[in-house]
Amino acid sequence: MRKKPIPAEVTAIHVADSQPSSLSARAYQTILRRILKGGVPIGGELSRRKLAVELGMSILPVAEALQRLQNEGIVETQPRVGTRVKIPTAADIRERYEIREALESQTARLFCRIATPENHAELLQMAEHVDALYAQCFDGIKNDADFLYLVQDTHARFHLRIAEVSGCTALRAMLEANQVLTFNWLYYVAASRPSLPPRFHADLAEALCTNDEDAADRAMRSHVRYGREHIIGEIPTEQLVAAAR
Predict the structure, then answer these.
(1) Which of 42, 24, 51 is nearest to 88 (CA)?
(2) H and E: helices and strands count for the chain
(3) What b-and-e string marks burial along 22-47, b requiring 16 or more CB atoms within 10 Å of the CB?
(4) d(CA 149, CA 7)
(5) ∠ CA 41-46-51 to the nearest 5 degrees?
(6) Counting beta carbons within 10 angstroms of the beta carbon of residue 8, is it exposed (0 to 12), middle (13 to 18) or buried (19 or more)?
(7) What pLDDT is stored for residue 190 in this prediction?
(8) Is residue 76 classed as helix, strand or coil in its secondary structure?
(9) Helix 169-177 and helix 180-190: axis angle, to 10°?
(10) Is 20 a residue whose pLDDT tops 90?
């Protein structure tokens, strides 16, 4: 039986939009993409004037983009410090993980309840693809910023697809509105990409493709929690960032 192709129209997060409708949207996506690629580390400074020159636009749309990123909790502006990628506390990271676990465990239950055999085949294929991409990172086959961005974007698509199939548009919207997958991405990159088990996403997909909602729930919670404490320990603290300057 032929595998069902992964739909190209599935978009992950705001940064995946291909044609921004305004200069500020273009600036937002460019800056966010740079942060998620690791081009600007946690604690790294973001100069409005420099960004405006680089992007070939006035300061106003750049300022609007940075304000949007600040509203989303990705950057912060402080007196005499300026704008920088926000340095999270351990509590901040745990709270983001708690939000993600609550949202995704419910999408797992709903997916298990209503997904069709076609949905199962699609999710299993996507999971294999995500695991294969991560394997290339861990084996050192590919390790450039553009490829790592592709890996994380594909990973976000996988999780949002589960939410889409669950049939609850509000849950999917909350995943995006709370930026939980974006923060997972940012923390993962900042923690130097801790390795994952070989079938990390395939095992999750198989659990979701059963008729056991409790098993699907447990699998998703375990999946979200995996490596959390390691990531918290690897994220630079305020003191480490200050010492590096």
Answers:
(1) 42
(2) 12, 2
(3) ebbbbbbbbbbebbbbbebbbbbebe
(4) 19
(5) 120
(6) exposed
(7) 85
(8) strand
(9) 40
(10) no
CA gap 47, 49 in Å, rounded:
5
Read off the tokens for 160: 């949002």
Fill in the amino acid letter for 230.
Answer: H
Domains of the chain in start order, with CATH, are 14-87 (1.10.10.10), 90-234 (1.20.120.530)
Q: Name the region of 239 (left: φ>0; alpha: ψ -120 to 50; beta: rest).
A: alpha
Total residues belonging to the chain: 245
Q: How far, in Å, CA of 47 to CA of 163, rounded? A: 36
- The percent of residues in the chain predicted with pLDDT above 70, rounded, is 87
**pLDDT over threshold 70, residue 14:** no
Judged by DSSP in three states, 82 sits in strand
- Neighbour-count burial of 244, counting CB atoms closer than 10 A to its CB (0-12 exposed, 13-18 middle, 19+ buried): exposed
Tens digit of pLDDT for each residue in 214-229?
999 999 999 999 989 8
The pLDDT score that the predictor gives to residue 80 is 79
pTM for this entry = 0.82
CA distances from 234 to 51, 71, 176, 243 (A): 28, 25, 25, 16
The closest alpha carbon to 110, from 166, 169, 186, belongs to 166
What does pLDDT average to over the chain?
86
Q: Which residue has the tokens 């636009």?
A: 57
**Amino acid occupying residue 206:** E
Residues contacting residue 66 through CB under 8 Å, at least 6 positions apart: 31, 46, 48, 75, 77, 83
The answer to whether the Cα torsion of 9, 14, 15, 21 is positive or negative is positive
Q: Which of 171, 151, 153 is nearest to 163 (CA)?
A: 171
